[in-house]
Amino acid sequence: QKEVEQNSGPLSVPEGAIASLNCTYSDRGSQSFFWYRQYSGKSPELIMSIYSNGDKEDGRFTAQLNKASQYVSLLIRDSQPSDSATYLCAALYSSASKIIFGSGTRLSIRP
Amino acid sequence: GAVVSQHPSRVICKSGTSVKIECRSLDFQATTMFWYRQFPKQSLMLMATSNEGSKATYEQGVEKDKFLINHASLTLSTLTVTSAHPEDSSFYICSAKGQGRGENGYTFGSGTRLTVV
């Protein structure tokens, strides 16, 4: 069973602080990983993708991948109230070319 | 950018009736379509994968005779929920992948909120 696991939260972070979201995956064959943001009642939107070990930065967002530990994380710097949403970690299982999602972490940024 | 149009955005139907949901790729050819279902406060669960011109591949536990998927063209895929029941009420989302668009090339539709009464 291919799985992607996340802490469901909620994770509450003060405005301006760093929010740290974590994810683990079970299939070592997976090569590509994604972080999506989903607002209530809306479709998910892609924030970051990462394929190589290490860090990838895009604005206030940094994705981190450790394939040896099968661990993916997302850091959000200078958190804003508009960042309050559910963050979905996802892995692409290349053998089947399909994206499997984690259960999502609810993030709340308090003013 | 790539756009996937999904309709309807909301639908309410009576128990026992069928509902069709459409997903269209507007500016690219979708070689593969994915259909997800999301219950409240839960994640997206993959229901099935369809390739243009082929039968859909359903995930374990998803009834293929209840959730009919058609992917007859490179720009259109449909999901028909047959004999809908209240437990089928959910948020259904399609995702399309175009050929040659790389691993970031999965575009999501805006979702359909189905309520069965």
3D architecture notes:
The complex is a heterodimer of chains A (111) and B (117). Chain A is mainly β and 111 residues long. Helices cover 0% and strands 57% of the residues of chain A. The termini of chain A are far apart. By secondary structure, chain B is mainly beta. Chain B is built from no helices and eleven strands. In chain B, β7 (67-73) and β8 (76-81) form a beta hairpin. In chain B, strands 2, 4, 5, 6, 9, 10 and 11 form a seven-stranded mixed β-sheet that branches. The A-B interface holds A 32, 41-46, 49, 51, 88, 92, 96-104 and B 6, 32, 34, 36, 42-46, 49, 91, 93, 95, 97, 103-104, 106, 108-111, 113.
Quick tags:
heterodimer; A: six-stranded mixed β-sheet; B: 117 residues; mainly beta; seven-stranded mixed β-sheet; four-stranded antiparallel β-sheet; 11 strands; globular
Low-confidence stretches of chain A: none
Number of strands of chain A: 11
Q: What characterizes the major β-sheet of chain B?
A: 7 strands, mixed
What is the helix content of chain B? under 10%
Shape of chain B: globular
Q: Give the N-to-C terminal Cα separation of chain A.
A: 40 Å
**What distance lies between the first and last C-alpha atoms of chain B, to the nearest angstrom?**
37 Å
